[in-house]
Amino acid sequence: MKQIINHFTDDDLYKFSMCCAVIDNFPRAQVKYTFTDRDNTVYPEGFARELTEQIESFESLRITDDEIDFMKRKCYFIPGWFYNYLKGFRFNRKWVKARQDDEGHLHIDIEGSWSDTIFLEVKILAVISELYYVMTGKSRLFDYDAYYEKTYGKGARLLDAGCVFSDFGTRRRASFEAEDTVVRAMKECCRDKNGGKGKFVGTSNVYLAMKHDVLPVGTMAHEFVCAIGGMFGPQMANNIAMNSWRNTFRGALGTYLYDSFGWDIFSMNFSEDFANLFKGLRIDSGDNYEQLSNIVAKYRSLGIDPKTKQVVFSNALCTDTAIEIEKYARNLCLPSYGIGTHFTNDFDGVKPMNIVIKLIAAKITESWKFYNDTCKISEDKGKHTGNPDVVRRFMEILHIKQQA
Questions:
Q1: Are 238 and 275 in contact (CB under 8 A)?
Q2: Which of 81, 104, 117, 260 is the most buried if burial means most Cβ atoms within 10 Å?
Q3: In sequence order, what are the beta bridge partners of 106?
Q4: Residues contacting residue 16 through CB under 8 Å, at least 6 positions apart
Q5: Please, what is the angle between helix 319-329 and helix 288-301, to 10°?
Q6: Where is the Nicotinate/nicotinamide phosphoribosyltransferase domain positioned along the sequence (predicted)?
Q7: Which of 357, 77, 353 is nearest to 223 (CA)?
């Protein structure tokens, strides 16, 4: 099987920014992650073995001078010391254990230093997705010329509608070539429609941003808040996370992902100083319109005009939903859209995978003898991630009504 991940920066920007903040604020933290397949997929025989070989191939990855030079040009907010860390970074296969059970279901556990293992999630998910289509023969259905035209059409519609949007699709892409095709098509569509109302901002994938000379886009993921929630408790996790982010980036990368433990506890932590510091918020779960209403009301309660604040929508979007949200949201805020699977895994006859890797436990230092469990409490019913007992405990602590 050919090596799927061939570039160190074939990864999402938020992994680099979070790693920087982790080293800056929690340099000795240790974490555990686990894999969840929400569709309970039965994988082909030998899949875990092939996946393990792909993960072992990560050990050959080295960040190049060209990649560092690109990031220095485009990612002004990352301090210089971090690139020295990346130059010496080496993956270790021992951080990951993958296996299949007797029924063919896939199990993956990750454990190690947070600043090391943080770079595994996106890469492993991208490998699982591409490897699955190869081993099941679905990859033979991938017509990349047709996919370019299909993607170009999506871009044209979004631009005409005035949408400001980015590719967020690395984790569940059908293949590297699929995402490469998406970024190329979107860039060329934006160029051809120069002067249109909308804008293709860039891609979360740092390597493809470099290849196509577009902006790498991203800030943080839920794991940053969830790990802090495990170490210090969910009540003040957002407060600590926002302070830590401010400590590292000094106001840059100012779009905060608020929904790790639900809107209510975040809102209580989102004081006026944070609301003024952060440029905006990202909606990644729940009803988009309801969440936007909460955000607008919160800003207004603090005497801040929500029309001056960015709101990034990224919850399972497609072209149609983004355009509909744009019509409504443009009069309330500065909307933009991070679109993932709909961009990078939308081939006819191919079902996108519904897979995640989530951080489930953390401890502040390796000298502790035990981990603290954590979880993610989604605004989408039934999409909480983590041990059900931990989810229930966190919901009780936060006074969140248990779902029937």
A1: no
A2: 260
A3: 100
A4: 9, 71, 75, 78, 82, 86, 206
A5: 30
A6: 165-363
A7: 357
Q: How far apart are the first and last CA of the chain?
A: 45
Six-digit token string for 262: 């639900």
Question: What's the 3-state SS for 137-171?
Answer: CHHHHCCHHHHHHHHHHHHHHHHHCCCEEEECCCC
Instruction: Say how far apart CA 97 and CA 87 lie, in whole Å.
Output: 25
Could you read off the pLDDT of 264-311 as tens digits, one per residue?
999 999 999 999 999 999 999 999 999 999 999 999 999 999 999 999
Contact criterion met (CB below 8 Å) for 376 and 222:
yes
Phi, psi of 295, deg, nearest 5: -65, -50
Task: Decide: 168 and 314 in contact? Cβ < 8 Å.
Answer: yes
Q: Are 175 and 181 in contact (CB under 8 A)?
A: no
Rounded to the nearest 5 degrees, what angle is found at the Cα of 89, between the Cα atoms of 218 and 30?
A: 75
**Contact call for residues 325 and 335 (beta carbons, < 8 A):** yes
Strand partners, 108: 98
Under 8 Å CB-to-CB from 278, ≥6 apart: which residues? 242, 254, 255, 256
371-388 pLDDT per residue, tens: 999 999 999 877 899 999
Distances (CA, A) of 254 to 158, 214, 225, 279, 310: 24, 20, 15, 5, 9
- CA 361/CA 275 separation, integer angstroms: 29
pTM over 0.85: yes
Q: Are 182 and 216 in contact (CB under 8 A)?
A: no
* Sequence-distant (≥ 6) Cβ neighbours of residue 195 within 8 angstroms: none
pLDDT in tens, 157-172: 999 999 999 999 999 9
Per the structure block, which two tokens stand in for 15?
Answer: 């992994």
